[in-house]
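From the methods appendix. Each design record in this collection lists the tokenized structure first, followed by the designed amino acid sequence. Records were kept in a plain field format so they could be parsed without special tools. The example shown here is representative of the layout used throughout.

RECORD:
FOLD TOKENS (192 positions):
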């Protein structure tokens, strides 16, 4: 098989992480880091919020309803067995055709892959790498990055019950308070 000509990647669409407090997450990522909240969606089971880091480049967070998750803090770049797996990494593609081409390519190589999933403003396929890392390839049907956010746009902001920080953004265009953070110790804790 020809592996020289691959998909035309356009960077990382989004890195999906998990939070137990979406309100604090919005206040930190938007309010502290200045990574604009550009889209969100929500159901009875979860919230999914996207923060912009460049044209078509976002970091996203899931907040799951009624799922108890432990919280702990570790320093960056230090191995620690307590770290939980991030949710998934999504690669950005230029259009729907590229998404279908990648899906066909994955199937040709014997990889399991989902059908195209329509999330409204984004279309995606899901698959795994050999290590079990959850991967996604996406393209923005409606690209919310690189423009002024319209928090009243129901196509991009569809969580029916957004966190208070989002209501502040909708009202005044800014978050009113932000969380304070602390550094983690460089000491690696050995599990008991």
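DESIGN:
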């Amino acid at each position: 098989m020809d592996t020289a000509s691959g998909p035309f990647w356009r960077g990382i669409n989004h890195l999906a992480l998990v939070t137990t407090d979406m309100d604090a997450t919005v206040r930190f990522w938007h309010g502290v880091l200045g990574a604009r909240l550009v889209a969100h969606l929500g159901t009875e089971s979860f919230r999914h919020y996207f923060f912009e880091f460049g044209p078509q480049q976002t970091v996203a967070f899931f907040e799951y309803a009624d799922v108890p998750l432990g919280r702990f803090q570790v320093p960056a770049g230090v191995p620690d067995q307590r770290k939980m797996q991030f949710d998934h990494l999504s690669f950005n593609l230029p259009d729907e055709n590229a998404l279908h081409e990648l899906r066909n390519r994955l199937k040709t190589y014997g990889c399991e892959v989902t059908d195209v999933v329509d999330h409204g403003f984004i279309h995606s396929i899901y698959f795994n790498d050999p290590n079990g890392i959850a991967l996604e390839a996406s393209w923005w049907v409606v690209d919310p990055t690189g423009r002024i956010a319209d928090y009243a746009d129901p196509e991009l902001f569809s969580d029916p019950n957004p966190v208070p920080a989002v209501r502040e953004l909708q009202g005044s265009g800014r978050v009113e308070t932000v969380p304070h953070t602390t550094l983690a110790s460089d000491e690696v804790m050995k599990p008991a």
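APPENDIX NOTE: The helical segments are 22-32, 96-108, 164-172.
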